[in-house]
């Protein structure tokens, strides 16, 4: 079942769990996410960065949308870090039910203006919008980028930002970074900042850069009030680690001989994240609530 982010995270917020947003870069990773979700009866978000959409091409998502719509578990197909209205419109044309507009590097008032422009367009056709306030770090190992120094989200700014833009979800900066952390860097999330934001706003909150952080910190963030956690590097790393092992010890060349073990390795990581987010088995809640499938132009 394909739904939008507002539908997905309203249930997660009410039932105190988070949903994983897993970046998909080809058909193997789409398989990983969908099959892991179905095997664990867990809701999931198929996230696609603009560079990943450039690589997979628009036509690929005709299949992705069809596969999600015909599943028994709820999925969102989400544009991750859309950088302008053109990339947002491309995602909508491909059938995405949710988008993110990332104006976090802009001055506060410009971020509000850009984000509100996207909200005004998307809400007319039932597409959910995620905004971002504050900046996410960059470990240098991810296509999603980031900055060298994190700017933490100010709780009072979050309140104003939501009020002036009308976004459905807010990505907050509390100390995470995109990618896998180098061995000499130990991430530490500022739970006090997250708690202050949670106390001031009502909409679902998003944690970017969820890979390679200590499990106990991610679990604590979910407990406080994170409803969506973005995961990309952790499960892709597992896939290609297994792929390297196979290719270094064999002369296989058929994808159907090489990739099955890689898919299983990535699915094990996705399942572990779903356990951490308390989302396993939660697809049943959406069925019980009779959540209606998403379609363009729904309100």
Automatic annotation (TrEMBL):
Keywords: Metal-binding, Zinc
Cofactor: record remark: Binds 2 Zn(2+) ions per subunit. One is catalytic and the other provides a structural contribution.
Residues annotated to bind Zn(2+) 1: 81, 178, 208
Cofactor(s) this protein cannot do without: Zn(2+)
GO biological processes: carbohydrate metabolic process
Recorded GO MF terms: aldehyde-lyase activity; zinc ion binding
Catalytic residue positions: 80
Xref: Pfam families: F_bP_aldolase
Matches recorded under Gene3D superfamilies: Aldolase class I
Cross-referenced PANTHER family: D-TAGATOSE-1,6-BISPHOSPHATE ALDOLASE (PTHR30304), D-TAGATOSE-1,6-BISPHOSPHATE ALDOLASE SUBUNIT GATY-RELATED (PTHR30304:SF0)
Binding site for Zn(2+) 2: 102, 132
Record organism: Enterococcus devriesei
Domain of life: Bacteria
The name this protein goes by in its record: Ketose-bisphosphate aldolase
């Amino acid at each position: 079942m394909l739904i939008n982010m507002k539908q997905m995270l309203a249930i997660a917020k009410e039932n105190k769990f988070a949903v994983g947003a897993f970046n998909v870069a080809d058909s193997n990773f789409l398989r990983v996410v969908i099959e892991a979700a179905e095997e664990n009866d867990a809701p999931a978000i198929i996230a696609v960065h603009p560079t990943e959409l450039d690589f997979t091409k628009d036509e690929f998502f005709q299949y992705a949308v069809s596969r999600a719509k015909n599943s028994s578990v709820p999925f969102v197909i989400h544009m991750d870090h859309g950088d302008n209205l053109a990339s947002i419109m491309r995602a909508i044309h491909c059938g995405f039910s949710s988008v993110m507009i990332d104006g976090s590097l802009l001055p506060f008032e410009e971020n509000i203006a850009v984000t509100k422009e996207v909200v005004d367009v998307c809400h007319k056709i039932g597409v959910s919008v995620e905004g971002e306030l504050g900046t996410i770090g960059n470990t240098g190992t991810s296509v999603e980028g980031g900055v060298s120094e994190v700017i933490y989200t100010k709780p009072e700014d979050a309140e104003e930002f939501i009020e002036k833009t009308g976004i459905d979800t807010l990505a907050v900066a509390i100390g995470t970074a995109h990618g896998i952390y180098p061995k000499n860097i130990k991430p530490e999330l500022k739970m006090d900042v997250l708690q202050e934001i949670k106390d001031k706003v009502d909409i679902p909150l998003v944690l970017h850069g969820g890979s390679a952080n200590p499990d106990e910190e991610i679990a604590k963030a979910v407990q406080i009030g994170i409803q969506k956690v973005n995961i990309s590097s952790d499960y892709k790393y597992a896939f290609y680690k297994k792929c390297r092992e196979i290719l270094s010890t064999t002369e296989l060349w058929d994808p159907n001989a090489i990739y099955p073990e890689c898919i299983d390795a990535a699915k094990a990581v996705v399942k572990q994240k779903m356990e951490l987010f308390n989302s396993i088995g939660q697809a049943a809640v959406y069925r019980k609530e009779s959540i209606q499938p998403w379609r363009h132009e729904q309100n």
